[in-house]
Amino acid sequence: MLDACRYDSFERLYDGYFSGDLQKRRSPGSATPEWAAKTFTADHDITYLSANPFVNSLGVPLDELRWGASCEYEWAAADHIDTVVDLWRDAWDDDLGAVTPGSVTEHARRWREETDDPLVVHYLQPHAPYLRRGTGRKLRRIRGGVAAPPEDDPPDGSAVGAVREWVERRLGRSQVAMMLGMLVELDPASVFDIGGRGFAETIRSYYEENLRLALAAASDLASDLDGRVVVTADHGEAFGEHGVWEHHVETHIPPLVDVPWLVLD
Which top-level group of life is the source organism from (predicted)? Predict the structure, then answer.
């Protein structure tokens, strides 16, 4: 499963990596917490390898997480999923502020030898951070809010983190705030791309660069798997459509809820 993978980008790029029957499906959520809470509602006898901190083995409900990670859902993965493997913790690359696609594939190969359960392999990409263009400051904060006990200090005490928090407090969910929130995740050199191509086109090109990395790693894993294999996504990503950037819970616009469902040959 690819995190934040919108249908149109996937449709345009996937056949360089996979062969199969592609359909457009509607996700029940426009961000991972909403999708997870509305998808895994019963008891599921599966092994879930998660590069996303919102799906974790800790048993902390989403509405009790900290530092911007909290969502208004009384749901915890450990209450519904038999085995959750915390790749967001065990395979974390601190320099990048993310879990890389290659690391997810490496862990999935090991786990397929450990269990007969159906596997869900949750890649973090194409979700930001854009691995060749910046680091995951926002994701570090979310990860810290999931993993750290309440008495710990917030995980991002950097100047950039302080700027982002100030922007979020002052501007809320405005389009300007969403765009600035994306901008502070990028390397300074990105301003030259933005100046030449514009903000939306630059961000989308970085996003699709991330998507290619995820597709390559997932294709590498799929070649080792038997049985029915499906490539899909939890939700999509917005690049200014309807005044929305990135993705947010309960924002059910097509770029966020139209996702791929590819059954591999």
Answer: Archaea
